[in-house]
Structure formats: structure tokens, C-alpha cells
């Protein structure tokens, strides 16, 4: 799965810019989008490898090569980062499902459904 396709990243960051965070404030405009996406990508890799509970903020900031202050400026908490990782993965999956639905590569609805199931299983 590609995490850094520019057109997908911009759409995702636009979505994030309008979401709410735990303290109820709207997120700021995201000018550091590529670095933030790099942290999200790093976190996803670490969560898949070590799990949510085992992966600490210290490991994420070490692997992403950012400071703890930058981490908390971007995400406010580990829980918020997890939410953003899930939202990012969900956004990518949705685009892949839509690509299958509108593709002429699959001749029947049954073929499309099989491919969507394969996408979810893999």
C-alpha cells in the first residue's frame, strides 16, 4: 500500500484539517504535511510490527527523527496519532475500493466483489 502518493496525501490532510481533536479545538492548517505524513507512516509501520500498546511515543519519535515537542505539536497525544493512522488507512482503503468499483478491468459485479474481499483480506 502506498502511503505517500501526493494526490492522496493532500486529500487526506484536507480531511484532517477539518476534524476535531480531543480538546474540542479544530486542528490548525497543516503546513508541515510531508513531515507529518512521514510520522504517520512510521507509526503505522511500528504499530504493525510491535502493536499499539508496545509502541511508545519515544520509539515513534526516534524512528521518525522528530523531537517530542514536534510530536505533541502535531498530534497532541498517542491516541490522536492512532486515530489519524486509522483514518489514513481507511481513506486509502476507500480509494482502492472505489477504484475497483469504477474499473472496467473487472467484467462483472461478482468479480469486483471478489477483488474488494481480496483487498480487505490482504
Name the features.
single chain; 122 residues; mainly alpha; 6 helices; TetR/AcrR family transcriptional regulator; HTH_TetR
Report on this structure.
This protein has 122 residues and is mostly helical. It has a domain at 6-90: Orthogonal Bundle (Arc Repressor Mutant, subunit A), CATH 1.10.10. 68% of the residues lie in helices and 0% in strands. It has helices at residues 6-17, 33-50, 57-64, 68-75, 78-101, 109-121. α2 crosses α3 (57-64), α2 (33-50) packs across α5 and α5 runs antiparallel to α6. Residues 20-32 have low confidence and may be disordered. It comes from Acinetobacter baumannii. One of its GO terms (molecular function) is DNA binding. Keywords: DNA-binding.
Strand content: under 5%
Could you tell me how far the N terminus lies from the C terminus, measured between alpha carbons in angstroms?
A: 10 Å
How many DSSP-defined strands? 0
Query: Helix amount, in percent?
Result: 55-70%
Q: Which regions have little confidence, pLDDT < 50, spanning 5+ residues?
A: 20-32
Reading the helices and strands in chain order gives HHHHHH
Question: For the report, how would you describe the main beta sheet?
Answer: none
Mind telling me the CATH class of the domain at 6-90? Mainly Alpha
SS field, number of helical segments: 6
CATH topology of the domain at 6-90: Arc Repressor Mutant, subunit A
Radius of gyration: 16 Å
CATH-derived architecture of the domain at 6-90: Orthogonal Bundle
By CATH, the superfamily of the domain at 6-90 comes out as Homeodomain-like
Which class of secondary structure composition applies to the elements? Answer: mainly alpha
The overall pLDDT, averaged over residues, is: 81
Shape: elongated
Pfam family, one: TetR_N
Protein name: TetR/AcrR family transcriptional regulator
InterPro entries: Homeodomain-like_sf (IPR009057), HTH-type_Tx_Regulator (IPR050624), HTH_TetR (IPR001647)
GO molecular function, one term: DNA binding
Amino acid at each position: 500500500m502506498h502511503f505517500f502518493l501526493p494526490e492522496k496525501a493532500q486529500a487526506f490532510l484536507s480531511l484532517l484539517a477539518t476534524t476535531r481533536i480531543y480538546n474540542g479545538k479544530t486542528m490548525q492548517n497543516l503546513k508541515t504535511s510531508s513531515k507529518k505524513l512521514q510520522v504517520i507512516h512510521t507509526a503505522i509501520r511500528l504499530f504493525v510490527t510491535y502493536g499499539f500498546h508496545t509502541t511508545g511515543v519515544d520509539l515513534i519519535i526516534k524512528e521518525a527523527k522528530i523531537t517530542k515537542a514536534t510530536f505533541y505539536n502535531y498530534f497532541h497525544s498517542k491516541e490522536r496519532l492512532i486515530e489519524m493512522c486509522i483514518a489514513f488507512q481507511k481513506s486509502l482503503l476507500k480509494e482502492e475500493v472505489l477504484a475497483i468499483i469504477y474499473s472496467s478491468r473487472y467484467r462483472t459485479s461478482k468479480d469486483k466483489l471478489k477483488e474488494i474481499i481480496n483487498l480487505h483480506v490482504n
